[in-house]
Amino acid sequence: MRQDAADNREAIVAAARQLLIDEGPGVSLRSIAKAASVGVATASRHFPERIELLDAIGAQAAADINEIVERHLGEFGSDARSAWRGAVHEIGNLQLAVVAQAIITDTMQNPETLSRRGQLVESRMAEIRDVYDRLLVPAKNARLCPADLDPLEFHMGLGVITRPLPAGVPVPVDVDQLAASLIDIALDGLELRAQAK
Question: pTM for this structure?
Answer without folding.
Answer: 0.86
